[in-house]
Every structure is written in C-alpha cells, then in structure tokens.
Amino acid sequence: xxxxxxxxxxxxxxxxxxxxxxxxxxxxxxxxxxxxxxxxxxxxxxxxxxxxxxxxxxxxxxxxxxxxxxxxxxxxxxxxxxxxxxxxxxxxxxxxxxxxxxxxxxxxxxxxxxxxxxxxxxxxxxxxxxxxxxxxxxxxxxxxxxxxxxxxxxxxxxxxxxxxxxxxxxxxxxxxxxxxxxxxxxxxxxxxxxxxxxxxxxxxxxxxxxxxxxxxxxxxxxxxxxxxxxxxxxxxxxxxxxxxxxxxxxxxxxxxxxxxxxxxxxxxxxxxxxxxxxxxxxxxxxxxxxxxxxxxxxxxxxxxxxxxxxxxxxxxxxxxxxxxxxxxxxxxxxxxxxxxxxxxxxxxxxxxxxxxxxxxxxxxxxxxxxxxxxxxxxxxxxxxxxxxxxxxxxxxxxxxxxxxxxxxxxxxxxxxxxxxxxxxxxxxxxxxxxxxxxxxxxxxxxxxxxxxxxxxxxxxxxxxxxxxxxxxxxxxxxxxxxxxxxxxxxxxxxxxxxxxxxxxxxxxxxxxxxxxxx
Amino acid sequence: xxxxxxxxxxxxxxxxxxxxxxxxxxxxxxxxxxxxxxxxxxxxxxxxxxxxxxxxxxxxxxxxxxxxxxxxxxxxxxxxxxxxxxxxxxxxxxxxxxxxxxxxxxxxxxxxxxxxxxxxxxxxxxxxxxxxxxxxxxxxxxxxxxxxxxxxxxxxxxxxxxxxxxxxxxxxxxxxxxxxxxxxxxxxxxxx
Lengths: 518, 192
Fold this sequence. Notes:
The complex is a heterodimer.
Chain A: E1 3-7, H1 8-18, E2 23-26, H2 34-42, E3 47-50, H3 54-66, E4 71-76, H4 77-82, H5 84-93, E5 99-105, H6 119-125, E6 129-130, H7 135-152, E7 156-161, H8 162-165, E8 167-172, H9 188-191, H10 195-218, E9 223-225, E10 228-236, H11 239-246, E11 250-255, E12 257-259, H12 263-272, E13 275-279, H13 285-292, H14 311-319, H15 346-357, E14 360-362, H16 387-399, H17 401-404, E15 407-412, H18 413-429, E16 435-440, H19 469-475, E17 480-484, H20 489-501, E18 506-511
Parallel strand pairs in A: 2-3, 2-4, 4-5, 5-7, 6-7, 10-11, 10-13, 14-15, 15-16, 16-18, 17-18
Antiparallel strand pairs in A: 1-8, 6-12, 9-11
Helix pairs in contact in A: 1-2, 1-7, 3-5, 11-14, 15-20, 16-18
Chain B: E1 2-9, H1 14-27, E2 31-36, E3 46-54, E4 67-72, E5 85-94, H2 101-104, H3 114-121, E6 124-128, H4 131-137, H5 143-152, H6 159-169, H7 175-191
Parallel strand pairs in B: 1-4, 4-5, 5-6
Antiparallel strand pairs in B: 1-3, 2-3
Helix pairs in contact in B: 1-5, 1-6, 5-7
C-alpha cells in the first residue's frame, strides 16, 4: 500500500478521486481552498472549477448530481451561509449521482469573520453530516460520504475544521473505484419543488432521516473505545485526538457520524460509565443532545465555548493539569506581528488616499480588510462578501447626502464577482449616489492566488473569457465609471474626490496586479 | 515521541522545513503528524508549525510545556513560543531580526535585550547566526534548510536520510545549493 504525507485538504481530494467523483466545484476560502487546487493539480480526470460563489458552486454540483454524476462542492463555513438556499431545497430533491458537500469550519477564526458551528446546518437542513478527526480519516470519510449519499438519497456534509484541513499525517492511498454515470430520468415529482411536490418529499426525507438514525447507531464511524469506566468522554473531530492524548485511560465514544447522532450508542455508553463528559469544539451540539436523552453530563461548564481547543485546554479541564516550564516571564514588551498589506501592495496606494481624505470606508472580505489596522486605519464597516456595496447604500439611506458625499465602498475583484454585483444593481435601481471602488488586483489574492472570472483563466489553467468590469458597471446603469492604476496617486486622489462628490452612482476600478504575482 | 516546533515569519519557509522533517521521520518508520496555519499568516504575520513523530501520534498540536525543540527562524518570534518548551527542551534561534508592522509604523519598538535575556533564562538555548551561511550559498531562501541542518545535529536521523528528503522536496535546480546549506547548518550547530 502506497503511503504519503498529506494535508487534510489533499486527503479529501484523494478521497473524492478514489470514490470516482466526476465533478468538483468550489469558491476559494480558507481553510478549504487546497481541496480544489489539489484536484486541479493531481486528479485532472475530475471536472473541477471555481465558481463565482458558493451558492453557484452548490447549484452546479446539484445539477451534475441530478444528471447522474458523483459530484462534490467544497467551501468554508461562511460559504455554506451563501449556499444555504440551495442546501435546504436540494435536501428535498435529494440526489441521483452522489452529492457531497465538504464544509470547513474555522474555530478560533484563524482566517474568518466568525466562528460559526455548521453542525447546526445538518439538523436544520435534514442532511446527514460526518466528521473525520484527521487527514487519513478525512480521505476515508469522504469516500463513505459518496456511498451514503446514494444509499439514502441525501446530500451529505463532511465537516472538517482548520486543524484537520491544515494538518498533515500519513495517508494510505487506495485505488480509484469505477462508478458509472447514472441514467438521468425525467422525474419532476423529485426534481421540481413546486409545493405539491415538496410536501410529499418532506415526508420522504423525514423517513430517510429515521433510517439514517438507525444507520448512525450501527455505523463504525461512531466508535466506543472502552477504557476505565469511571470516566466516559464523548468527543468528535480533532478534539478526539486531544482526549486520546491527555486521557489515555478513560473510555471514549468517538462521534464520526454527527447527524443524526447515534442515540443508542450514546445510551449504551452513558449507562456504562460513572461520570459522563462531552469534549467538543464550538457549540454544545452533542452535549445538548445527550442532555435531551436524559443524561447528566459535563461539557461547556468546563470546556470553552469560544476559540479552538488545544491539548492543554483539554488537559486542564479534565485533569486539572497546568502544563508549564520554569522559564520566567519576560518583563519587557513583545510587539505583536499582525499580518499586514505587503510592501508595494496596490491596495496600499488606495488606502493611503482614503485615509488622507478621511472618508467613511465600507469594507469587504479580502487582503484589503487589513486596512482596518494601522498604518491605514481606514475601514469602518465590514461583515460578509459583498456587504461593502449594500451597506454603503444603507449608510446613504440612513444619513443622506451628508454621508454619501463623504464615503466609499471598497471591494476586491473576486469578492465583487462573488456578491457585489447585485448590490450595485440595488444602488442604481434605488437611486443611490454612492461610490464603489473595485480593488482589482487581477487575482483572488487572500486565499493564495486563485483564478477568477476576471483573470481570464480557469482553475484548470485554461484560457477563458475575461470579465470586463467597465462594461459590467455600465450595463447595470452606472454612468460614471473610471478605470485607473492606483500607483498614479495624484490622479487617483482627484478621481476619488470627483466621484464621491458626484450626486449619482459611480464605480472606480483600481487596477494593478498583486505585488506577489510574477 | 519527539515534539518539534518551527516558528518564524510568513515567507521564511517554515512550512517546508516541517514537511522535510516529516518526510525524514516517516521514512525512518515513525508515525508523524503536523499542524500549520495558512491564510492571514502569509501576509507577514507570525507562522508556526508543530511536528510530532513517534510510535503512535494522536494530537497534531503539541501541548504547552512539552516541546523537545523549538526552531525559531527569527529572534522575536521565540518569545511567543517559550511556554511550549518542556523544562529540558532546547531552543534553537536564528539571530535575524525582522521588524513587525507595529515597529515599522513607529508604534512599538523591537526589544534590544532578547539575546542576553534568552541566554540567562532559557536552560538550553542555541543562538546561531545563519547570515554568513546564506551569503556563502547565495540564497536567503535557504534559511529553512540551514536551520534544519542545525536541528539535525540533535536528532537521530542520518545524513543520508536528510539528503534523500531534501532532494525529494526542493526544486531540482536548487538541490545542490540546499544540500550545501544543510551541511553548513550542521557545522553551525557544532561551532557554538
């Protein structure tokens, strides 16, 4: 058996390949990006693409699934918010070829705007969710997800976290299965969700979830490792390894099938141990379920709700151990090293000007969000992809001309394509007068230089149509459109002053390629 | 079980160093795990990688107070990692100083007493200056390999095992330069 050290995300790509996945679609987002990059690099028989956003990605995958192909979408946790609309209704239609969603949560918010726990989506959307604890398991679980999807006619979510996506271990490589394309049958009762079709499908999926509850009880993805019976610990994801490390003598119920949870296994385990604990990152998802089953359990009263877990946090909570060395505390001051815009970054020219003009800046998601920090300190709102443009309009609705003549929205090229176009239409349609600056550095930079519809290249490296921001802005009705290199600082400042002052919508396309690009 | 932390600044090649050590350990028959941070760290922020190898490894993260070695590519960064060192652990530190953004912006200053403080307060500390080696091999990018060379003097693996891993993991045209950097790194360790 060939063995290879693999990143969790590489292992997932391998799992998709071995399961004979035919279509893989994503929008880049840390910590999920390397899944599709690995497919494009190593498994080129899979049709893989970046879509403009996660909603589109999931819908493309739903199409491929209904058409009969094993298909997979990958996204970060907040990406599933964008794709929640298709998730909830494609849960009703179910699948033809398997439909697998890789969801990467980011406890600790290493590279995200929040720490949301996407296990709640599985329950809310009535789809099964499985959770590996390591890269090697991530490969195996991904393969299993394809099988479960087809067996139960459900989309399946594989939930990983940053510590699985971005940790490495030895993975055993298997052979690729050969799964033929399934026939596509016209079946509007299953695939067209008018109310008359949706109601019976709702009954069907509730029945499927009952079957999956039974499956979860029997699945080897949920595993009891008996040790001492004094203490029993229910745990999942990477936290399982922390528990193994610091509580080697206790009994463990490892949850790999997260939704539906295995009630019978939980009861068997809880009844056999004297004290019951749940060690899980993020929300008390398992803990509340165990409590609802009627068991007394210790969880979030000793395990933090915030941030990611570490071995020492678990060691301290369960064993009262405070791992220390005897090095005295340094009494001087150690300056922090926050990430910053690179030296010569094209965004830097823009934020120097915006800081100088002292305008209100509605910001967005990308490298340029770092402009909130010194030396620029030039960002005043930011929330999710595209919100710069829509919030900018909201600022104007709330405060009128006084705000509109003293503020801008800034949004990157890829983020604008992801979710900035519809709010730009909103500004024009609803007679706003705001100024939107598209920070076009010719690449999706933040996540490590991925192609996007404005770069003229696909994920697979093929030449393609290059989206034209000027033509697009004009097409939605913006009459004042300026494209300019931000290195022309004086000219750029004049343009910003003029466009902000103009009592009609305007778009400034700040075009200069990322300093890290060759 | 051995626990090794590589620490430095985005762009210094911390992740590649950890990958090479993993490869060496795996080929020597050990179970290995590693944990790294992507994303924001690439924009000049602090970067670290935890590497663990032994008969059976569970956690990809090293527990505080249990690192056998911390290999730090930049002087200031060691100050964020010292609580990971086990009491008998060894800190290997490059003297290079890179001003973080707040220092560049004049909002903070780079402490001037670190070298002295580390020598007085950390039991087992090896402070090296990789600069002359980097000048000699004519590549600043070989810093990670030089530091691996220093570390290699304290681990059980043979020259051949290191050489094989380096050959397999750096670009072909840079193999000779990196092997030289590694050898010079080994010499740095014994020269102190």
